[in-house]
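Table S2 (continued). Query chain:
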Amino acid sequence: VQLQASGGGLVQAGNSLRLSCAASRVSGRTFDNYVMAWFRQGPGKEREFVAGIGWRGSPTFYDDSVNGRFVISRDNAKEMVYLQMARLKVEDTAVYYCAAREGVGVRRPTGEYDFWGQGTQVTVSS
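Corresponding output:
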């Protein structure tokens, strides 16, 4: 599976942004058999889990830092996953990555994910 993340950019704090992740070269199994997630890596920080979504669009899980502000969703027919980000904060500044997992269930550790996109930069200014 190849993943292509897009939608990042420079935005002022308090505003919104939507990230998209397109899957391609899905073979052997269909897109709706992959658990999908978003991670981020801020300057000088380790890559961290942001949100994850199950095969059919549920369940969804969020890191406490984004719960209530970010929404993850997927469109299996289009082989897309999205991250709607609202009320952005300066501390949300990071490179955001989408990831796919062949296993069952959303997991937080990066090592649980089998495929990664190239990342898209989100910069939130004060």
